[in-house]
Amino acid sequence: MNLSKPVLLPGILGLLLAFSLNAPAQWDKKPYTQWSEREATKVLCDSPWAKTQVYTAPNTSFQTGISGSSGVGATRSGRPPDRPVDALHVNFRVRFLSAKPIRQAASRLIEINKKGTGGEELAEVLKNFASGEFLEYIIVAVDVDSEDAGQNVQEAKSLLHRSGTANLKNNTYLEVKGGKKVFLQEFQTPKPDGLGARFIFPRLVDGKPFITPESEEIHFFSELSGSYRLDRRYKTKDMMYEGKFEY
């Protein structure tokens, strides 16, 4: 897919907060054009190609902890079921935008939201976006949302708008089995399409795919600031879709 041709899509991520993520995995059981709103949302937030990192703030400054720990300051996937009422929670959605299921889920949500009112032009745009191939780049998209309102939420969102390639390229990478890393090639701030900021990495290193199914795990890390570190892991064995390794 040619990155020089932006995909103009309506904002979609505002839809995500209204739906539970406790939907069964359906991406391998029926065509994406038949996914329900809840199923598409799950692909975008909690699937082999998308992970959620939650930052919890008791007051006005974020605290983060080790994944799976308890209490205020824990970083987890999904919304804490017993979250304190006086805490703020901000979700960082970390998705492989270059993976077809993610783009299909985004397209499906727009289609459902528009209910056939977008016309043939929008339908063609969504079809091309969902089916495009990424041969040169790996793109990780990061967006922020929250059910809470406040300074911390705005701070998290504005961080993605203020960041740039220069300050992220040395502390943002993809890592695979054996500790091999490929560092950020380009960072793009969030666009009006609602898909979030783009972290772009080369797909080929020395003429060969940097990531293969044999990589076992993909580790995405980015130190956005001294307080915000994105740290998500993806199992390659789970990233097969329609008989193809999608990332």
Note down, in words, how this protein is organized.
This protein has one domain (13-245). Helix content is 21%, strand content 26%. The chain contains five helices and 13 strands. The strands form four sheets. It has a five-stranded antiparallel sheet. A four-stranded antiparallel sheet has the order 5-4-10-11, with no helix packed on it. The chain has a two-stranded antiparallel sheet with strand order 8-9. The protein is globular, with a radius of gyration of 17 Å. The two termini are 14 Å apart.
What fraction strand?
A: 25-35%
Mind telling me the C-alpha Rg?
17 Å
Helix/strand order: HEEHHEHHEEEEEEEEEE
Number of helices: 5
Largest sheet at a glance? 5 strands, antiparallel
Assembly state: single chain
Cα shape: globular
The structural domain count equals: 1
Report the end-to-end length measured between terminal Cα atoms: 14 Å
Mean pLDDT: 82
Poorly predicted regions are 2-8, 15-20, 59-85
Q: Into which percent range does the helicity of residues fall?
A: 10-25%
What's the count of strands? 13
